[in-house]
Amino acid sequence: MPKEQKQKRLKKEEETLPSPPDNPRQCHFWVKQHLASDPNQTQRERIPCPYDTSHTVYKDELEKHLAQKCNSRPKPNPPYFSLNVNCTLPPSSDLVTEEKITLSELSKEALDSLIDNVNYWYQNFVPKNFETLILDHEVVKERKKEIIINSKHVDQQASLLGHMARLKLLQPDGCFIEFGCGKGELSYFTKLAIKDESNSVSFLLIDRKNTRGKFDGGIRETGSSKLPVLRIGMDIKDLDLSKLDFIKNKKIIAYSKHLCGSATDVTLKSLVNYSKLNKNENSIIGIIIALCCHQLCQYHMYPNHQYLEDIGITNNDFKRICTMSSWAICLDHSSREALGYKCKRIIDYGRFKYLQESGFDVELIYYVESSTSLENLALMAVPRND
Strand pairing of 229-232 and 225-226? Predict the structure, then answer.
């Protein structure tokens, strides 16, 4: 820096610095974050940063700060980001912005009518008695011995791995995509279950939230070499798989242990969209998703509006069914539980038909006992051999 410019900068900083306090008990440090709230401020105005209000910035330098300096400024979107690409309807749709009506606000007549409709839809359009098939896998046995108090998660992982083996999805040249992966523990055990000597398997972990204690390192480590592992922090509704180079020309196995509400719907939409673009390649060879949290479903993300229309479910009906799936406002406990169960199955069967109509052979299977998890139904699909 030239000498004149340096002197000019030092002089500018000296003019900005407040004088030391008269009271020795007051702080002698200069904290620029405090300047924004200084009532006697006569210097250049400071304002909170729009990206992160924990720090302030000179108002006349705001534009430069936001563009170049702020560590909290949003990162540029990757090529595979496409806003709401996996939503069935745009969020701006009138069907999305309609006024919300809670069940407690319904009249007794309206509520009774809704209950009658749920019973009608379930009895006439939803198959009964889905198969219960609880499996295990050897790679989780040691883990089960370590977990003494709460082994429910391990039991679910073991059964899902068992079903992946049953459907011949544990392929050594596959690309395994875990949606809503959290720490990635299921992918870690999936890696252990794959008999891979060529190290040609790869893992894609997707979750919009960051988390501690990730299993990414354990998945990647294979002795002398390392497996390709990519973690994406993004909402699934915005993920365009067709623009993701990591999975190109690979056989995809998609899976998740408890994918909440609409996350399941946008996941199915993303996989079907990708499958349609790669129709002649059988790019997606398997899907296994343990379903949960139906009360979080949203109409504009649900993938099978045609199914809802065919059986007579409106947008408002759908919202109320989702709420009723975790029933808690009237009737006795057993009746509420039975009605909530019916609501879940109505939603799940629409997902079943969506995959079926998209070229998959589909199963809805109870993969663990209800004592292990009340959310014990899994959606499983493989490409149909036409």
Answer: unpaired
Distance of CA 126 to the CA centre of its chain: 27
Question: Rounded to two decimals, what is the model's pTM?
Answer: 0.81
Residues 6+ apart with CB under 8 A from 34: none
Amino acid 138 reads E
Tens digits of per-residue pLDDT, 53-64?
888 899 999 999
Cβ atoms 168, 257 nearer than 8 A: no
How many residues belong to the chain?
Answer: 386
User: Are the C-beta atoms of 104 and 329 separated by less than 8 Å?
Assistant: yes
Q: What is the rounded distance in angstroms from the CA atom of residue 148 to the CA atom of residue 378?
A: 25
Q: At what angle do helices 315-324 and 333-357 cross, to 10 degrees?
A: 130
Dist. CA 273–CA 301, nearest whole Å: 14
Count CB neighbours of 200 within 10 A: 14
- Partners of 129 in beta bridges: none
Cα separation, 253 vs 284, whole angstroms: 6
**Cα–Cα distance between 199 and 283 in angstroms, integer?**
20
Calpha distance 347→370 (Å, rounded): 19
Q: Please give the DSSP secondary-structure letter assigned to residue 273.
A: H
Instruction: Outline where the chain has alpha helix (H).
Output: 3-16, 62-64, 94-97, 108-125, 141-146, 152-166, 185-193, 216-220, 262-277, 305-311, 315-324, 333-357
What structural domains does the chain harbor? 16-69 (no CATH), 103-383 (3.40.50.150)
78-114 pLDDT, tens digit each = 999 999 999 998 876 666 655 566 777 888 899 899 9
